[in-house]
Amino acid sequence: MPHFWNNTNSVAVFPHELIPDYWKNQACLSVELSRNKNNSFGVKPLQRGGGKRKKLIIDFDTLPTHIQEDLGDPRKLDHNLLYFYKTDSVAVSFYTKFTRPDGSHLNPDEQQRYVTNASVLISILKLRAKHQAERIKMGMTLKGLNNFLCDESNSFNPVLLKKFSYSHNLPTHPTRFKEALNQFETEFKYNDQDWPFNFLSVVKDVEGKRKQNARIVDDLTECILNSLFANIPHKPTATEIYRAYEAFLNGYSEVYNEGTGEVYNPKDFPKLSESTVSLYLAKWENKAATHKLRSGDRQKYMGQYKPFHQLERPKFAGSLISIDDRNPPFKDLDGNRVWFYNCLDVASGCITAFVYGKTKDGIITDFYRQLIRNYTQWGINLPDGLEAESSLNSSFVNTFLQEGYMFQNVRIEANNARGKRIERDNGILRYNIEKKRTGWLARPHAKSESNQSGNSKVPMIPFENIVEGAIEDIFELNNSQHMSDNTKTRWEYFLEMQHPELKPTNWQAILPHLGYPQKSSCNTGYIKLQGKARAIAQNGKICLGEKLINVMKAIEGKEIDIFWLDDNEGNVLKALAYYQGRFICEVQEMPRYNRAVIERTDADEAARELQSSYVATVDGFIRSQEKSLMKINVFQHPKPAPENGFFIPGMKRNKFTPTDPETVETIDTDDEEKMASVPSVSWQNAFMK
């Protein structure tokens, strides 16, 4: 792919992007360059090759017009900001962990909006620096630069909606836009940490005092918005859906249910803003239903026309992982092949995670869970980069596979085997290790004769034996010699060469999508999970003091949602609690201590002290609340006697006077009647008397 050369406006092209489509080989291209060496026209180099480090680079502007059109000019983008725009991982980290004074986190909609606003402002700053440098270089004035940046920001919104299905809500007036930009680009300190930009300036209602409006978009309204796609034959934008919804509310069109025949009344539906419509249409569950109408076959187009890169293997483990599914070349007794999904650390060549099954159903979610388990229990941070195919991963690109969430850099391609390093390393498994096993299947059209099928019949293998053999092959691969360092195995290289700048796992960004959901409740400061009463925690530590009280105010006695993940032994690895979609706290097992004092260890004493502090926090808060109660007495006035006002016209009656129970006459009962009513005597009295 052509790219800018040395921070100039020149565009560079590597020879492999021109060979063999436009020149037969390197020699033919070199002849062309030599022929045009003294001419003012023809193909020219930006840098001549020589030695191992200095590579030949071609000037894009000297290529023939038809080649330039085929390769594409990076200077001709749909919008200037597309060259700079990227979801900022630092912004994702800030907004997913930001809390208001009451301890509440931002809801998912707020997080997405603020991350988008911050990422757009960062791209605006990069665009401003480029234009300032160009204007100063050409002796031009900087007057009007702010208006230009504001116009770029405003015109970028339709491009965001078209390419990413979300938009920003930055100020549209140049004066307000300049104020927001100047405030954002100042460094500031938050929670004892220095941040490169003032991310807090983007947040609305930092103190949390604004009254939250009730949710006006119910399930039926959301269903109507999705169903409006059916009335538009082309791929509609969110703006077109908003206009169609407005036409329905104003009576210009009717919406009815084809299944039931019900005609919906516009008066039963709320008026929505264009940003609200865009926000709900951008939700993953809604995009999944309208993906074909909205996105078409874009992935297939990219797979057919996007050129591949020739890349060098990373030096540090954790810099990049490559994932893909594969079928070990064996057939089970039913004639089917087993499905594996593997993760390859590109630098070390280690397979660090794998799952298997008879089908691909649900295998991708189990794979990401297993990946998190392994890295967490090894005490290693999750990798920085990911490369994967889109067939199984496309449904996650708007959740935990967004850049900055689970991985900092994500590249997902469709039908491009050359774009994933694991495809080539799978050949090592197939031809160097698995080939030795009984039942190995050769490729139908293998180029090497040694890899072609023989004349004997290949036996089928039981499913369990195939899985056991495949796992043994992975262990053999990981314990084999490293490709470039013959003093270490792949596994040793993986452990010793971890990149020092890998980011810690952002559990709040990934666990709501990958964790197991469970309903629970908080009672007396404990949350039940897997039958155990677990404590409230924050940042890996059990809460005490004000933090504990703030969480209990939010969820004590209420039903909450827990998303948790187990480790390889089945124990809880990590658990997060959410209330009404908002992150509240972590759920952590309380350490126990021995009931017998004589058997307690130092760890037992530490656990006893922690539990005592936990209980004391709640007791102390209750006592302070009790002391704050005012002493109030209530004086009860006697109730007035009811009046006997009921009557029937023309009817006379004798007034009935209730008899005093103390003067009621008692009538003695006859002895025979008394005997008839006396209960039977117990057998003890009858026997003893």
Q: Any overview of this molecule?
A:
With 689 residues, the protein is of the alpha+beta class. It has five domains: 3-76, no CATH class; 86-202, no CATH class; 219-296; 311-359 and 382-496, Ribonuclease H-like superfamily/Ribonuclease H (Nucleotidyltransferase, domain 5, 2-Layer Sandwich), CATH 3.30.420; 515-624, no CATH class. It has 22 helices and 18 strands. It has a six-stranded antiparallel beta barrel. Strands 9-8-7-10-11 form a five-stranded mixed beta sheet. A hairpin with a 2-residue loop joins β14 (532-538) and β15 (541-542). The protein is globular.
Low-confidence parts, pLDDT < 50 over ≥5 residues? 298-308, 663-684
Strands across the major sheet, in which order?
12-13-14-18-17-16
Please count the beta strands (DSSP E, at least 2 residues each): 18
Q: How many H/I helical runs? A: 22
User: Percent helix among the residues?
Assistant: 25-40%
* Integer count of domains: 5
Overall average pLDDT: 81
CATH H-level superfamily title of the largest domain: Ribonuclease H-like superfamily/Ribonuclease H
